[in-house]
Design brief:
single chain; 360 residues; alpha+beta; Alpha-Beta Plaits; 6-stranded mixed sheet; 6-stranded antiparallel β-barrel; 8 helices
Length: 360
């Protein structure tokens, strides 16, 4: 039985096309993926991301536990700052990718992927390093307000001054009278905010944002636009681009790994992999002929399968087919060429610099 977010009825009333996504009933689109994608790139879009999980680490050992659990350096993070990190297994593969919000040294929030929330909570409980662990996923709804006009829209609904909230910073305050964690985070590559609130207040907040947003070209958006937006930025999707069998170094996420900070789960495996040298890497590519590469399509060199496409689509912003794939390191440099098997035929592709989309 698929789960529903507190905004399920709002999606139905707005004509959202509901699909099963990792055990949740969520809208894949409303008016259409192209329109919704464009709204986020040019104006403002609203996403229901209430399926995400929220796990708190608290107490005197909270900071130490976070340092041991995730790859990035929370000690260098200021109160009111967030960072993106890997939660790894002992082999260096991803248990999940997370955002860690630091309220203070004794209160940290790990936001995890919805499909992984129960698994992640169990993993963190098992490796708590003396911190108190509390899975508060059922106590939060989450709405992402994304796009160049997102700050303008929110400014009319909150007494909080949003201008000093930098990228990956957060604060607490009311939006449309609803108490929220207001975070300048998101997975679209645009200016945007994520609002965490009590589930019973989510519908009121959603409706207030839609109403106030009429003057800003607001559009409710589904999973389809969320996927095309994140892929244009080469943001990784757990289960597609990263998983338990791929490390952050292979996934081109070495920047979230701080080996110098001291011990963390998976560190030894990453050190060994670095010393040995990578055999594969996640790269961005464009298809240079007709065809769209999709998840699972083989990457070919001289007709032989040497890798696999993990995500691919027709880029709504760039109007070209784009994708990401794990390829042997010899093929991972910019300008390298290979074929992708699309409907049984080899179609040429070229490794390009990412992100694919860059704001003007």
């Amino acid at each position: 039985m698929a789960r529903r977010t507190p905004l399920f009825e709002a999606h139905q009333q707005a004509g959202g096309k509901i699909v099963d996504f990792a055990g949740w009933e969520l809208p894949v689109q409303y008016k259409g993926i192209l329109e919704e994608h464009t709204a986020v790139r040019t104006a403002v879009g609203l996403f229901d991301v209430s399926h995400m999980g929220e796990i708190f680490l608290t107490g005197p050992k909270a900071l130490e536990a976070a340092q041991r659990l995730i790859t990035n350096d929370v000690a260098k993070c200021q109160d009111g700052q967030a960072l993106y990190a890997g939660l790894l297994n002992e082999r260096g593969g991803f248990v999940d990718d997370v955002i860690c919000y630091r309220f203070n040294a004794e209160k940290l929030l790990l936001v995890v992927n919805g499909a992984n929330a129960a698994k992640d909570a169990a993993w963190i409980h098992e490796h708590s390093f003396g911190a108190q662990v509390e899975d508060c996923s059922d106590r939060y709804a989450q709405i992402a307000v994304q796009g160049p006009k997102s700050r303008e829209l929110l400014a009319g609904l909150t007494p909080v001054d949003l201008s000093p909230i930098g990228y990956y910073r957060f604060t607490e305050g009311t939006v449309a009278g609803v108490q929220c964690i207001i975070a300048r985070t998101g997975y679209t590559g645009e200016l945007g905010f994520e609002l965490y609130c009590a589930p019973e207040q989510a519908t009121g907040l959603w409706n207030a944002l839609l109403e106030k947003g009429q003057g800003f070209g607001v559009m409710p958006c589904g999973l389809g636009a969320r996927d095309s937006l994140r892929l244009e930025m080469k943001f990784a999707l757990y289960g597609n681009d990263i998983d338990a069998d791929h490390t952050p170094l292979e996934a081109d996420l070495g920047w979230i790994v701080k080996l110098a900070k001291g011990d963390f789960i998976g560190r030894d495996a990453l050190v060994a992999q670095k010393e040995k040298g990578l055999t594969r890497k996640l790269v961005g590519f464009t298809v240079t002929d007709k065809g769209i590469a999709r998840h699972g399509y083989p990457v070919l060199e001289d007709g032989k399968a040497v890798g696999v496409v993990t995500s691919g689509t027709q880029s709504p912003s760039l109007k070209i087919p784009i994708g990401v794939a794990y390829v042997p390191t010899a093929l991972a440099t910019e300008g390298s060429t290979f074929d992708v098997e699309i409907r049984g035929k080899p179609v040429p592709a070229k490794v390009v610099k990412t992100p694919f989309y860059k704001r003007a």
